[in-house]
Amino acid sequence: MKQVKCECGHVNPHGTVLCESCGRVLVEEEKSKKVVDMRYEGSARRSQTYNKTIIDKIWNFFSSVKVGVTLIIITLAASAIGTIFPQEMYIPTTEPASIYYESQYGFLGKLYYVLGLHNLYSSWWYLVLIASIGISLVICSLDRVIPLYRALKNQKVSRHEGFLKRQRLFGISKVDELDHSYELVKEKLESKRYKIREENGDILAEKGRFSRWGPYINHIGLIIFLIGGMMRFVPGMYVDELLWVREGETAVIPETNGEYYLENHKFVLEVYDKDSDNEAFANAIENNGMVAKNFQTDTTLYKKSAETVAGEEPILDKVEDYELRVNEPLKFEQFALYQQSYKLDELNQMHFALTNKETNEALGDLTIDLYNPQDEYDLGEGYKVEVLSYFPDFEFDENSEPVTKSRIPNNPAFVFKMFTPEKPDGEVSFVAIKQTIEPFGDNDFKMTFKGVETKNVSAITVRKDLTLGILAVGGFIFMIGVIQGAYWNHRRIWLRRVDGEVWVAGHTNKNWHGLKREITGILQGTGIEEPKDQLDEKEK
Amino acid sequence: MVSLSGNLLFIAFLLYLIGTVFFAGSIKDKRGREKEHGPNKWAKIGVGITIAGFLSQVSYFITRWIAAGHAPVSNLFEFTTFFGMCLVGAFIVIYFIYKLAALGLFTLPVAMLLIAYAAMFPRDISPLVPSLQSNWLHIHVTTAALGQAILAISFIAGLIYLIKAVDHSKKNKEAFWLEAVLFGLVCTLGFVVISTVFSAAGYKSDFNWIDNNNVESVQEFHLPALVGPHEGEHLTPDKFSPLVETPAIIDAKKLNTVIWSLITGTVLYLLFRLLFRKRIAESLQSLTKRVNLDLVDEIGYRSVLIGFPIFTLGALIFAMIWAQIAWSRFWGWDPKEVWALITWLFYAAYLHLRLSKGWHGNKSAWLGVIGFIIIMFNLIVVNLVIAGLHSYAGS
Ligand code: HEM
């Protein structure tokens, strides 16, 4: 690679505009400018130097801030579109999305659905946008940080006249007692916490250089965060399951290889009470009606014992009792369990009595466990009931055949066959809630409904997320980077003696007004004149 | 305790009002104009009163916290007044860095408008539903609001910049849009005025209607119903009957409120024009005469620089930590979350445009204004119109 040797002897990488060491202008076109572009110290950035191959072009595309900001703005607009109507995950499950959007929001809703905007944040093009921002972050940072680092490290105290003259803040003054002024200036610079370097009677005062690394550090944090986000798709990193457990039931916790079990003893729902809770809440409760106070499942966590014999019922060792509430997840190993939702009073058992229709005499009671009905119930003395069919969530399909919608006993129905000494061949009866059909004509016996037992069900989220650590590291680094870049800034002031005059120049990466005010304070009473803002003069 | 707390808030409001008058006085004061350095006596008193008002509002906050047993940031009224308080706090800090009286003159009215707006919503102390019962409520909401308030200072600075820098004598796009922004503020005032008038009169009219999900319910209007609910049945026929019915997907009550706010805002605006025979921006220009444009430009930028990390911490990082604890996932694309992300992306774009593309002056000021519009959108529209997990009860 061709390198550029400056007259001062420093060897610069190809593409350098301002000598890293003395600041001399190395590129002809720049010499005609009144103020040089100091943004990256005129260093040799790859994107500004090469533009031949495809790789150059891709590199230059992604390293451009214009492209970066455009990507950010597009992402921003796309994200906003995703909030016009609820995303699919937030619509009620009672209706499929294909119908819901149109029925709720009319034509626009249909359009939203057809365009796939109801799943916008997981759409391929949204992910491409985020990925492009990530690529852009990497490339733009690499493009700038190394040249910038070189330039700031190699800078000499005595800068070339052409460099000073072309700084935005620049001034020349004649001072009689220069040495005295210098001492004053140095003192004041020090009190403003500048680091001062001196060579040949020239001064470079600098502070806050480390803030220049802020953006690169925060970009690294963002990249780590994005990588963390992608890791979710690596198998084993992420678990998201919903576990429904009824009161009294012990269920295996999914994704734990059958190692862990959770027992639900009881689900508790509490609401605020006007009288016993904080009286300040009385009005709000009156105006809004019930307000939930606590959702809680009393649980016990078990671990399968090592002594369990394969193929047999597992032996469970208790790990702990835990009152699982919102905001208080139960953690074990890499998992966390969350009180997510609940269903109150789900049907659990039904009681019937076999009855003689004519005499109304009860001939025996039976209780059917709706989750596990027996095939037959022997009531003794020749009385017996067989369950021919069971429909936990019964409805008639389009052919008027009884079917079940789900395995949840929302609307149980049975076909019973009743055996009695009087009717040893049995009588068939179809029994649903508030409904009895006798398909083969008049029966002598019937199943009288006696009552139900209900149970509450807790929905518990089972979560494992091994990406959290990476995300936390990314977020932490991001915060360090932004704070570094936002709460400090990089300022430099040069003083150089040229033929009995003092040349003063100043540069900062941001907050020019602040720098000017600081320089005003520093030069006050030293006899050295304040540098002028050459951009202001240009405008006038 | 509750009524003491309410009184403290009212006192704070009055003090902000008086503070505004003093800041206006400091700008009109001819003395001290030659001496560039240091604020004059009016400004000093003004900032003193502002601090007193701020302390009064902090006391409101603390007493209400004690009464409720949780930080009062859990409904729209509480959050918005808290946001107003943060705005004043941010102003006080920035004032001591830059000593610019004009900043107070513009910040305090905006803060008062926020508080008055908030007061139109139910003010009951509400109990916390289970997901809100966490210390992260305090940590997350307060940092997020503080970040937003500091960012909002760049709106105030942008407004001052534009009022001074835009040429109001000719018709041009910038002047038009600036006036539109101010008109928006006037309409907010309109909302406060009209709601107060009808609520003082105890106006109420009821409608029976069937919503989109075929659920029958009663809607209670507190403003005369210019528009009524879809196929609504007017239950209080002695009251004003709607001129038009809205389609089923639109909430008639909210639309009605918006219409009333626009009407009242327009009336107020026309009154202003009649009185001053000038656009609002142009009338305000005289108040910005002594303002140094470079200084306000820098205040706008500094406030974004200071606010951005705090906003990131509060509205994204703390939010994610809490969401992970309460809802088992740190991010769920809930509208409120998305709008926090949008705000964040917007200010990131601002910083890049300013640092790398050299967007200073007018452009930067406009970005400050737009940023505030996004913040307000998240506060108002997302809460009241786009319902989600975060939406506050209230109407
Ligand atoms: C959401 C994503 C991003 C965030 C939050 C972010 C954040 C930041 C912040 C806070 C700064 C410092 C600004 C200042 O101090 O005024 C910065 C600087 C910068 N960012 Fe980003 N950035 C993002 C994406 C990008 C992208 C996609 C690019 C690619 C072109 C980019 C390129 C830059 C550059 C070139 C700088 C200036 C560095 C310097 O002058 O030393 N950023 N970024």
UniProtKB/TrEMBL annotation, chain A:
Pfam families: ResB
Keyword terms: Cytochrome c-type biogenesis, Membrane, Transmembrane, Transmembrane helix
Membrane topology summary: Multi-pass membrane protein
Subcellular locations according to the entry: Membrane
Transmembrane annotation, as ranges: 67-85, 124-146, 216-234, 466-488
InterPro entries per UniProt: Cyt_c_bgen_Ccs1/CcsB/ResB (IPR023494), ResB-like_domain (IPR007816)
Signal sequence residues: none
Domain ResB-like: 65-427, 442-519
PANTHER family: CYTOCHROME C BIOGENESIS PROTEIN CCS1, CHLOROPLASTIC
Designated name of the protein: Cytochrome c biogenesis protein
UniProtKB/TrEMBL annotation, chain B:
Record has Membrane as a keyword: yes
Keywords: Cytochrome c-type biogenesis, Membrane, Transmembrane, Transmembrane helix
Stretches assigned to the Cytochrome c assembly protein domain: 74-178, 265-390
Disulfide bond among keywords: no
Any matching Pfam family: Cytochrom_C_asm
Superkingdom, taxonomy of origin: Bacteria
Transmembrane segments: 6-24, 45-67, 79-98, 103-121, 141-163, 175-201, 258-276, 299-325, 337-353, 365-389
The protein's name: Cytochrome c-type biogenesis protein CcsB
Family annotation (InterPro entries): Cyt_c_assembly, Cyt_c_biogenesis_CcsA, Cyt_c_biogenesis_CcsA/CcmC
Primary location: membrane
Subcellular location: Membrane
Source organism (scientific name): Cytobacillus purgationiresistens
Membrane topology, record value: Multi-pass membrane protein
